[in-house]
Design brief:
Blueprint lengths: L4 E5 L3 H13 L7 H7 L8 H10 L3 E5 L2 E10 L10 H7 L3 E2 L2 E2 L5 E9 L8 H13 L5 E7 L3 H9 L3 E7 L4 E8 L3
Parallel strand pairs: 6-7
Antiparallel strand pairs: 1-2, 2-3, 3-6, 4-5, 7-9, 8-9
């Protein structure tokens, strides 16, 4: 991993501000199409109050260099589903899916609310380290991490597969084609 980058559970206002800053720089509508195709993008913009409520339930994992957030992987417990109404259809879909032959609802799972790595540290192992942090900080509380990835984001699809996510479903909604993937935190 990149020298000088540390992985921690999010803690405090500075981490929330850092997440929002990095998120704002990487929103799908704010990055040019060529960058979105080659480097990826994030889809949902959170507000500070929502992030604070999510973090009160379960801290997210952040990567920091010199005290600045250079990567994050948001934890969104199922109980936080009402905090981001645009994600309600995804949560409803998850209730109908299975993992390893059992309904997803039979597992203790949370949703990866979003993952993002600053351009300056991409390709240096930060993404993988963020998910290693999820295993380290969350495996005693949860069995699975579940998320959906736009098929228009091939960099993210490859990165998630590399760290162990497996596809459990594909679908199309009014905005995009999606791959629903799950990570066994105990594997």
């Amino acid at each position: 991993m990149s020298t000088g980058v540390t992985i921690t559970a999010s803690n405090g206002d500075a981490d929330l501000d850092g997440i929002l800053r990095l998120q704002g720089l990487n929103l799908r509508g704010r990055v040019d199409p060529a960058t979105a195709r080659s480097q990826g993008f994030v889809t949902v913009q959170h507000d500070r109050a929502t992030l604070a409520r999510m973090h009160a339930m379960a801290p997210s994992v952040v990567a920091k260099r010199d005290g600045e957030v250079v990567g994050y992987a948001l934890v969104m417990p199922v109980e936080a589903r009402s905090y981001v109404p645009v994600l309600e259809p995804m949560f409803a879909l998850l209730e109908s899916l299975s993992f390893a032959g059992q309904p997803l609802t039979a597992h203790r799972y949370y949703v990866m609310g979003q993952v993002c790595v600053a351009h300056a540290v991409r390709g240096q192992g930060v993404f993988d380290a963020l998910y290693a942090g999820h295993r380290r900080f969350l495996a005693t509380r949860y069995d699975l991490c579940v998320t959906e990835i736009s098929l228009a984001n091939p960099r993210s699809l490859r990165a998630h597969a590399r760290v162990g996510f497996v596809e459990i479903h594909r679908y199309r909604d009014a905005t995009d084609d999606w791959s629903v993937v799950a990570l066994d935190l105990g594997a």
